[in-house]
Request: fold
Amino acid sequence: MTFKKYALITALVSGTILAGNVAHASGPAKGVDESAAINAETGIRLPEGFSATVFADGVGTPRHITVSKDGWVYSPMFRSKDGMGGVAMKDDDGDGKADQIHYFAEGRVATAIHIVDNWLYYGEDLQIVRWNLDDGPVPKGEPEVIVSGFPAQRAHANKPMAFDGKGNMYVNVGVPSNNCMVETRKKGSPGQKPCPELERHGGIWRFDASKPGQDQVKDGYRYSTGHRNVNALDWNPYADALYIAQHGRDQLNSFYPEMFDAKASAELPAEEFHRIEEGDNLGWPYSYYDQFKGERMLSPEYGGDGETVATEGKKPLIGFPGHWAPNDLIFVKGEGLPEEYKTGAFIGFHGSWNRAPEPQQGYRVVYVPLDKSGNVSGDWVTFADGFAGEGPIRSPRNAKHRPMGLAEGADGALYITSLMSGGRVWRVTYDGK
Reply:
């Protein structure tokens, strides 16, 4: 299987390939103008009518992000800063830049964060905890444990979460391997079937959002399965459904060079954008999605050859290019954006090491137009780019910034985080008419 079979890459990167029978036409959202210059002060490019400020710089390694009604901006961090795992920021004078920066969550690094009914939820690798913001805007003391008992794992241990507004919390439990091989990431090792990892991993679990002391096994309900790793998920308030964007498996060329050359492996499999219904099985590890063929393919660990269509799994709404690494997803609810940027999904792509030796791609925020029923209604567009810096990027370590977290403020502003170059937070507003 050579890259000649993947000549549609140019069309894919411009956002014109959708999965299955999803209808699409050119949507009204235009995205960035690729002939426009990247803003020298902020380092990013936005569509006409939008502008950004560097809300905070040098704050550490921020991951996901959330904003309170009174303008406090919170983010957990990948690494602690002076022993603290979270950062709280506030713009006091309205200039789009944080005047107050405080650290909290001593000894607690995390990925996910949300505010629900003035509770600050904080997703660590092994548990979900929360602080009551009625006690003050900067959390202090020990938080309340909502869910614990998640298995310890070296890979894909993050616990991103979403809330449906009906008292339920949805938590992703990623898989601890690449593709459930007998010997993980070893060439020639077959896949396990049934995959034992799916008992505790590889799906979304639903919990009571307000009940303390829950356990994954005793109290969790497995809402869906067959995921590999999901950092990007949110509840679509218009369609009243859960949406996710997941990371695809790695190393097709490393393990199966007779089937996938380096270029094909860099593009495959797709990063999958799904609407998740209760009981869904997306197909991992037995299948992956090939965005060029528009089919789920049988994984080579289970006898696939790059040409055999799988019988297990669900086609995504969109198959994005491989190894872009979707790390957050939000639906905006306020009135701060123009109509063409409402009811759809914003997805932040972080970039991945597994495109090597090909140049890195991703490093952008895209917008996916959806109608109020949750159907894809147009081509996805790049909403923000320029994060990685100038020139081809050969490794994520060489990127100046990598989009990580997305959030909406009460005033309709969008916030974007990056954990690179000391950590940065942008605030994006619409100023056009």
Summary: Residues 3-430 form a domain with the Neuraminidase fold (CATH 2.120.10.30). Confidence is low (pLDDT under 50) at residues 1-27. The helical segments are 9-13, 216-219, 252-255, 262-267. The two ends are 49 Å apart (CA to CA).
